[in-house]
């Protein structure tokens, strides 16, 4: 009898052992906090091009149910000194910063210090009074209509390597007299709104944004390596340098001149970001409600659901709910995605501008879900602009469009003139542009003066023009004098 019982127990044990082996082999991501060697090798293979010679690279991490199941580093953090990236290397996380700024606002609301329905003027008496008021929720969800400061400053003549901080940006904001659209009417990604949110946090708390964020968000969530950077000249150890890649395959260092906060310029590690994002499915005590609030989706004025919550996109990938955001600044590229129902989060950090960072994060999810990855854009709905009407090109008298034009909203002049049988314009910092006629009073040029719509007075004379870019619509320029350039 004892012998028969022992044989039965051995059979059951072998059956359970085989079941465990099958689950670990077939469903490596669904249990036991580890990946199969095959999955690890597949993920490694996605980043082997970062390991070729003296090449920038990055750090990649995967967490499943609060267990770190994959973390690896590739390539170099510094090409000048051939210093490799490590698993704890710091990267500028770009617009992933927005979800932390949003969390700061949510915390203040939970403490009863503000409401998301508060109008911005309540905190900034000098904020422009537009036809329709802007509230905090509009800023969080990119539905405010505020023009993006990157595009505004480019139109004003600021170059990409010009130093800029929150004070610079707020001066430009206070000069605005119009919006891209009425608040709540559309979604259009606007970094400006998140700079304003950082300033609101300072107004409400009376503390410096970077210090308040450390004490109220980063440290309570054990993100000890994450910080807000408002001084690009500061020396920080273990921080990756970012790089561009020119057409002749020569790497170029992407100098950092970015000192604005709220919309970007936070630094973090893969480990800290995974620790943060795990709260979307297993929140630390007292943090469940704030992380749920970040996922709030609301409707636009026309009833359409906006899939941008507070600092995050909420969408689907592989027919599974996904929370995600990308970050782009200088040569840094970052992507963070969370599949809350599967308790899976993935982070890709790189210091190489040409790296396919978001696609690689989706490739990793595809490996773990045994799904092929269909390519999609990283920023859903991020470019909502007016499509230029298809018009036949008339034969215009180009001299009609010459003159000097001024915009009070960015304190900037452009001069239009005819040269070499073409319409051209010049700017004191940006140089000369060729203006190509596209239709009736419609023109296009190169960045930042992309789309130009001429306006006329009652006598049919050109009195000004409206400039539009990806995130600035109908910025008005008034003609102030005729051109003296021939």
Helix content: 25-40%
Structural shape: globular
Reading off the top of the CATH hierarchy, the class of one domain is best stated as Alpha Beta
At the fold tier of CATH, the topology name of one domain is Beta-lactamase
Beta-strand portion reads: 15-25%
CATH architecture of one domain: 3-Layer(aba) Sandwich
- Compute the CA-based radius of gyration: 26 Å
Q: What do we call the CATH homologous superfamily of one domain?
A: DD-peptidase/beta-lactamase superfamily
Please provide the count of β strands: 23
Describe the main β-sheet briefly: 8 strands, antiparallel, barrel
Q: What does this protein structure show overall?
A:
With 486 residues, this protein is of the alpha+beta class. Among the domains are: 245 residues, Beta-lactamase; 84 residues, Lipocalin. Helices cover 25% and strands 24% of the residues. The protein has an eight-stranded antiparallel barrel. The longest helix is centred in the N-terminal third of the chain and has 25 residues. The radius of gyration is 26 Å and the shape is globular.
């Amino acid at each position: 009898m004892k012998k028969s019982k022992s044989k039965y127990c051995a059979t059951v044990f072998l059956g359970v052992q085989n079941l465990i082996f099958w689950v670990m082999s077939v469903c490596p991501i669904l249990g036991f906090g580890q990946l199969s060697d095959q999955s690890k090798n597949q993920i490694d293979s996605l980043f082997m091009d970062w390991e070729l010679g003296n090449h920038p690279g990055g750090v990649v991490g995967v967490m499943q149910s609060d267990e770190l199941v994959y973390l690896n580093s590739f390539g170099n953090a510094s090409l000048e000194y051939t210093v490799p990236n490590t698993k704890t290397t710091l990267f500028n996380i770009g617009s992933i910063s927005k979800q932390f700024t949003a969390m700061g606002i949510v915390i203040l609301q939970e403490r009863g210090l503000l409401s998301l329905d508060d109008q911005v003027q309540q905190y900034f008496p000098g904020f422009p009074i537009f036809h329709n008021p802007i509230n905090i929720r509009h800023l969080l969800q990119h539905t405010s209509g505020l023009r993006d400061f990157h595009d505004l400053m480019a139109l004003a003549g600021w170059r990409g390597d010009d130093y800029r901080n929150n004070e610079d940006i707020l001066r430009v904001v206070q000069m605005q007299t119009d919006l891209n659209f009425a608040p709540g009417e559309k979604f259009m990604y606007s970094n400006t709104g998140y700079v304003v949110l950082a300033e609101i946090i300072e107004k409400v708390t009376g503390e410096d944004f970077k210090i308040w964020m450390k004490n109220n968000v980063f440290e309570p969530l054990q993100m000890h390596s994450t910080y807000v950077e408002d001084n690009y000249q500061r020396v920080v150890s273990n921080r990756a340098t970012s790089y561009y890649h020119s057409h002749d395959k020569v790497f170029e260092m992407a100098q950092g001149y970015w000192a604005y906060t709220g919309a970007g310029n936070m630094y973090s590690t893969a480990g800290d970001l995974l620790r943060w994002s795990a709260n979307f499915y297993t929140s630390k005590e007292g943090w469940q409600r704030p992380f749920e609030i970040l996922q709030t989706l609301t409707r636009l004025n026309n009833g359409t659901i906006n899939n941008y919550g507070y600092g995050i996109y909420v969408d689907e990938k592989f027919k599974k709910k996904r929370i995600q955001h990308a970050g782009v600044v200088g040569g840094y590229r970052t992507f963070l995605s969370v599949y809350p129902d599967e308790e899976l989060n993935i982070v890709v950090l790189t210091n190489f501008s040409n790296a396919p960072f978001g696609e690689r994060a989706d490739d990793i999810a595809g490996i773990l879900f045994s799904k092929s990855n269909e390519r999609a854009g990283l920023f859903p709905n991020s470019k909502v602009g007016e499509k230029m009407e298809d018009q036949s090109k008339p034969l215009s008298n180009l001299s009609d469009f010459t003159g000097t034009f001024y915009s009070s909203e960015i304190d900037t002049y452009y001069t239009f003139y005819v040269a070499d049988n073409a319409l051209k314009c010049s700017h004191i910092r940006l140089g000369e542009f060729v203006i190509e006629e596209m239709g009736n009073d419609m023109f296009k040029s190169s960045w930042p003066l992309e789309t130009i719509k001429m306006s006329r007075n009652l006598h049919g004379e050109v009195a000004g023009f409206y400039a539009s870019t990806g995130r600035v619509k109908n910025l008005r320029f008034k003609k102030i004098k005729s051109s003296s350039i021939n």
